Write a sequence for this structure.
């Protein structure tokens, strides 16, 4: 596989992973049992800073949603 093709494949996989992370985080926020105002806050965080917001959701928010 030529080197430019390899970087293209890596870039496509990274983009798909990036969007999958955001979609999964948003879907988990919608399905959580949190109050509406807390969900709205998480949605705003994830939409303003998608990558960091999603990572914070998986690290902190998801665990508090299960309580």
């Amino acid at each position: 596989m030529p080197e430019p093709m390899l970087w293209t494949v890596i870039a496509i996989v990274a983009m798909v992973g990036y969007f999958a992370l955001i979609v999964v985080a948003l879907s988990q926020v919608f399905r959580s049992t949190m109050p509406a105002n807390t969900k709205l806050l998480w949605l705003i965080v994830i939409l303003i800073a998608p990558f960091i917001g999603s990572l914070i959701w998986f690290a902190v928010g998801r665990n508090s949603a299960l309580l």
The longest helix spans residues 3-31.
